[in-house]
Known about the structure:
globular; DUF4154 domain-containing protein; signal
Amino acid sequence: MTVTAPPMRIVGRVLARAMLPAALLYAAPSGAQDDDSRLKAAFIFNIAQFTTWPPAGAARPLAICASPAHSLWTGLRELDGKALAGRALAVVDSAGGRPCDIVVYSAAAAPAVAPAAIAGTLTIVDGARSGRYQGAVTLVEEDPHLRFDIDTREAARAGLKFSSRLLQLARNVL
């Protein structure tokens, strides 16, 4: 069976639909840091939509863990209670010891080496930093745009899979 690339108009529609929530959040009036936080939170939400999760945690809310000191905390908190794949989102303090489905690190707080894989946990690092762990997804600012890189091997280590549509939108796929 031969797989052909989809026409660009289809890819464009997929991109527009995937990033519409980001555009809507970004358009809300507020300070620049809040806009950045909301935009990145919308990207995280959309990335999660295109992620296949193991069925084990399906009965509980999908937990997004981050530090309240993280610059994305405000934007992430706005996701609290939203539905994703039939599960409610719960944004929680990463220091609370609760199981996490998504862990969001700042580039400065990312571990130096890959942590032990936790089944079903998507690790996202906000910003690339040389010599540090980059996670399964790295949010990268390329003025004036926000992009993301995907490490499929890192996702596979955690038992996660990304949609081919998401992989097409990534800046880099490893």
